[in-house]
Specification:
Number of strands: 18
Number of helices: 13
Strand order of the largest sheet: 1-2-9-7-6-3-4-5
Largest sheet: 8 strands, mixed
Mean pLDDT: 86
Distance between the termini: 46 Å
Helix content: 25-40%
């Protein structure tokens, strides 16, 4: 056996350094871009944007109300908490310790003080920067902080790495809220998001979704003796409304299938709004196929989101989509954070899942699937209002973009599977 020569050692060292550089480059570029973007945003406030007032549609034995402005939504959520008689179930990804966050905390504490059962869940990682003082709650409130790191010694168990990205409020058995809105002052007036309020039999499905998450995590997050959250069996079924939940711990990810199957069935139009658009190739192919068979496929995303790297990575699929006839609209002047889709004037979904790997194959998410022409018409009107405040990206404009932009997109492309 011959030993490596100095020349071979040198070549091997160069190869290793080159490989390390190739791996590190997209990460370093992403960090640099995030820092520069954060600096540029200092002191800047979003401009006003058009909103659609809350609108209620009768569905089966209940109703669905749409919200596109945080102030309207928060007013109704707080009113519901203040009117609670027996139980409040509250879950959120972000719960800021600002004026709006304090209002919700006080309303929940007041409900608990008057004898209402109050259960709260918030994500530990999402709220790392929130003051620890804010996270002290009255003993009457049962609060579960989903941990920043939940794998323990099971480092390689990917089912334990999902974040709790859901946003749910259920009050008694009478009403429930779900959608994209987190809790904070910026979301109240500065972000364009979509949430819905549900009454009727479908409330119980959201109640069960909360209880299942609580019971799955209560023993390791609270006291080992903590009793499960027990619910009565749902007495009725609302066939027009279905709840879909991503549960990483159980390896359940139905929301991606929900989107793809619905798009595959489309024949007239597919109007999709998402805060972060980082689909896998199969998802892209589904949109392209719908456009090529004649459906009016539109995708509405932020012109500039709060995650600049996600914006750049999402552009990697624009050429394919535009060539297939998909229309892309970029919402200007404010962050659009909605996660909605409506198809053929009869099918709709509103929820918490973005079109990215973290939402569709990683996080705890919840989406509502609704079969109703009235709600589809409402969401189409909301989409048209948002589209009026957007810039359409044309194939010619995209093809003529600067060389440095194409270079940056290619350098960041390896990060796509991570987001």
């Amino acid at each position: 056996m011959t030993s490596p020569t100095p020349r071979n050692d040198h070549l091997l060292m160069i190869l290793r350094r080159t490989l390390a550089g190739l791996i590190a480059t997209p990460f370093m570029l992403a960090i640099a871009m995030s820092l520069v973007d954060s600096y540029r945003r200092r002191g800047k406030k979003p401009k006003p944007f058009p909103v659609t007032p809350p609108r209620t549609v009768d569905i089966g034995d209940g109703t669905v109300t749409t919200y596109t402005y945080g102030a309207d939504l928060y007013a109704d959520m707080l009113s519901a908490i203040e009117g609670a008689q027996r139980q409040v179930l509250f879950e959120t990804y972000l719960w800021k310790g600002d004026e709006v966050g304090e209002r919700f905390k006080q309303a929940l504490a007041d409900a608990a003080a008057r004898g209402v059962e109050v259960y709260c869940i918030y994500d530990g990682f999402g709220n790392l920067v929130v003051s620890p003082r804010f996270k002290h709650f009255p003993r009457r409130m049962k609060v579960l902080r989903f941990p920043s790191y939940a794998a323990g010694w099971r480092f390689f168990d990917v089912t334990r790495y999902g974040r709790d990205h859901r946003k749910i409020l259920v009050v008694d058995d009478s009403e429930a809220f779900v959608g994209g809105y987190n809790i904070g002052s910026a979301y109240e007036t500065e972000w364009r998001d979509t949430h819905i309020r549900i009454t009727g039999p479908a409330v119980w499905d959201l109640k069960r979704a909360f209880a299942d998450f609580w019971n799955l995590n209560r023993r390791r997050r609270l006291r080992s003796s903590e009793q499960p959250l027990l619910l009565d069996t749902g007495s009725t079924w609302e066939p027009q409304i279905r709840i879909h939940r991503n549960v990483p711990r159980l390896w359940m990810f139905p929301i991606r299938n929900l989107y793809i199957e619905a798009i595959n069935r489309s024949y007239r139009r597919v109007w999709l709004t998402t805060a972060y658009f980082l689909p896998d190739q199969d998802f892209v192919d589904t949109l392209k196929a719908a456009a090529r068979r004649g459906a009016d496929v539109r995708v509405l995303v932020p012109l500039k989101s709060n995650h600049v790297v996600a914006d750049w990575i999402s552009r990697g699929y624009y050429s394919q989509l535009l060539d297939a006839g998909v229309r892309i609209f970029r919402y200007r002047d404010a962050m659009v954070h909605a996660k909605t889709m409506t198809i053929d004037g009869s099918w709709s979904t509103v929820g918490t899942a973005n079109i990215d790997r973290l939402s569709l194959q990683g996080n705890y998410e919840i989406n509502v699937e609704i079969f109703d022409e009235g709600l589809a018409r409402t969401l189409e009107e909301i989409f048209e209002v948002d589209q009026s405040h957007s810039l359409e990206l044309t194939a010619g404009e995209w093809a003529a973009r600067d060389l440095h932009r194409k270079f940056t997109e290619n350098v960041l492309a390896p990060l796509r599977p991570l987001l």
